[in-house]
C-alpha cells in the first residue's frame, strides 16, 4: 500500500477520454483560415548533385503559392536533432544539414517543397518541377564507407585516422586494464553480432503547421518531443530570434519513440519556410512512406564482445566495440555509440573493461534516436555472450548473472553513482513467472516443434546522458480560488505525462489532485525544458515540478503562519486544507484559535486553500513556486524472460510468454508503468523476429509501409507479464526512476537466448525471420 495520497496510485489518465472518443487534437487536426498545404519533392537517387532545377511550370499552376528549393531557401547549417543544442559542452556540435541542399545524400532527401491551396494541387506541382541530377558514387555499408577509396559524403567532415566518413569524436571508455583482465581469465569468448535498421512506426507521422502573424511572430504546431530545443533549431535555421517563435503541441503527440527529439523530420522548418514566403498558414503532414524513408531510424550496426571469466564464473574482463551506420546525416550519431557502451558496461561488476565505438556516414536514411537509444544493440550482443559463457562453464545462465550483477556502491564506468538497484529481485520474480526451473526439460526427443527459455538483464538511464546540457524548470502558480496550474515544457507523447506529473505536483503540495491543472509542451507558456526523451520526463521534469511545488508550499505556509500565530514548520497542507499538525494545536492563539481576518468559513482550526488564496489575493499576494534543477541520474534495472516455440520445419518462432520485471524506483502511476512495459516489450518482439528495413543495390528502401514492414500486430502478442519491482531511489521525485525506454532493451536478447536454448543454434543477426531460422536449421 502506497504511503502517499496520489503517488503510487493507478489514477485514470487525464488524456484517456479525449483519445478514446476521438476528441483529442493532434497536429494533423489543426486547420486555420487561409491555410495552405505543403508537399515535398524527394530525391530518387542515393547520392547526386542537382545540376539544374526548374520550378517555373510548377509556379504557374493555379493554386500554387510558393516553391522552395536550395536556391531560395535558408542557407544555415543545422542538426535536425536535439544535439544541435544539447551536446556535451567540450564537444563541437555536428552541423551537417541545410534545409535544401544542392547535393542529395539518400533516397528521400528533400529537393523542393510546394505550398498550394490543396494537397492535390501541391502534388501536381511536384510533377512539374524539372530536376537535372549528376549522379555521384554512393556507399551503403559502414565498413565500406570508412575505406580510403569511399566517396566523401560531407566535404571536410569525417576524415579521421580510423577511417573516412566518421562524423564525430570516437567514443573510448577505458576502465582499468582489459589486456591484464583477459590474461587472468580462464575462459574467453569473442563474438560479433549484426543489428538491423528498425523503424519507430509511431501512430502519427511527422507533421507541422506554421503561421506568421502581422508582426512576423511565428507559431508552429508540431509533433516534436522537444518544443524548446526545436524552437532553438528553427531560430538558427531562419535567423529569427527565439522570442519571436512559439512551438507547441496541439496538445497531443501521437507517439514518439525518439524519432521526434528535435525536429519532426524537416516538417517544422519546411512549413515555417513556406509560411514566411506566403504569409499564410502552411500545413505539412508526411505520408507513411515519407515517414519511413525521410525521418530517422534506429542505428544498424555491428557489435563485437570479448568476455573473460574465471572457472567459477567470476567475470574478469569485457572488451566491446560498436560500429554504427548513421546514414546521410549525423543527428544522434555522435551520442548514440556512447550510450551503447556505457549502458552495456554498467550491468556487471567487471574489474577490467573497455569500449570503442563510433558512427559512420552512408547514403542511407539518417539514423537517430529510437526507444532504448543504443542500448538494445549492445545488450543483444553482450547478453548472448553471457549465455554462451554460462554454457561454456556449465553454469545456469541465471546463476551466472546473479553472481556478477552490479551492486549499490560498486565502481563502474558511468559518471554517476549506482544509487539503487533491485536487479536481483527482478531476476527472482521474472524467473518465477516464466517457470525457469523447467529449463532443459521442455522437449521430447525428435519433436519438430521445440521450446526454450531465455533471459537477459540490463540497465538504462533516467535522464539524458551525463555532462550534456540538461536542466529543467517548472512553475507552480496558485490561483485566486486555491486551485493550481503547473507549467512544464515537456509534451505528452502518449506516456501519461499529463497525469503522472500532476500526481507529483498534487502530492508535493498537499492539494486535491482534481484542483491541479497542467500546461505543457508550449514554449510560450512554459519555462525551458529539454523535453520528453531519455526516460527522463517523470524523473527529471517531475523533480523540477516537485521543487516548484515545494517553493509554492513554503510560501503558502509562511503566509498562513502569521494568522495561526505558529511557526510555518508546524503547519501542514492536506487535501487543499491548511492546518496545524495535530501535536501543534495547543500552540495556536488561545483566543478563537487561529483567527484569520476576512475568512468567513473555517473548518475548526483549519483554512481551505480557496479561502487562503483569496485572502492573499486581496492583499496583493500570489503564491508562485519556481523549480530550477539540474537533474541527477538514477539507473533503472530490468530482467526479461522469454519462452519460445520454434517450428524446425518452417522456421517460425512463436513466443509463448514473456515476463518483464522492472526496477523503476517508486512507480508514480503503476497502471501507466505497466502500459509502458507492455508497449516496449511489443517493440522488442518486432526487433527480435520481424522488423527490418533493407536497401537495394540502388539505395532504395525496400520496406516503406505497414504493408511490407513486418510490424507485429495484436495477434502476434504473447502473454506478457509486466512486473513492477520498487526500490526507492534517493535522487528521483518520491523515489521514482525512469521506465519508458527500459522495456525495449532486453526482450530481443531474451528471445534470442530462448531460441538458442530451443534449437542449439546461436543467431548473431537480427531479426530471426522464418527464412533465416529455417536456413540455419536446415542447411
- Number of helices, counting only DSSP H or I runs of 4 residues or more: 19
Could you describe the largest sheet, including whether it forms a barrel?
7 strands, mixed
Contiguous low-pLDDT stretches (5 residues minimum) are 589-596, 598-603
Query: What is the distance, rounded to the nearest whole angstrom, between the alpha carbons of the first and last residues?
Result: 56 Å
The total count of strands amounts to: 26
> How much helix, percentage-wise, in residues?
25-40%
* Strand arrangement across the biggest beta sheet: 3-5-1-12-9-10-11
Q: How confident is the prediction overall: mean pLDDT?
A: 95
* C-alpha-based Rg, rounded: 28 Å
The computed structural class is: alpha+beta
Could you say which overall geometry the principal axes of the C-alpha atoms support? globular
Strand percentage lies at: 15-25%
Describe this structure in words.
The strands form six sheets. Strands 3-5-1-12-9-10-11 form a seven-stranded mixed beta sheet. It has a five-stranded mixed beta sheet with strand order 7-15-14-13-8. A four-stranded mixed beta sheet has the order 16-24-25-26, sandwiched between helices. It is α+β, with helices and mostly antiparallel strands and 779 residues long. It contains 19 helices and 26 strands. Residues 589-596 and 598-603 have low confidence and may be disordered. Helices cover 26% and strands 22% of the residues.
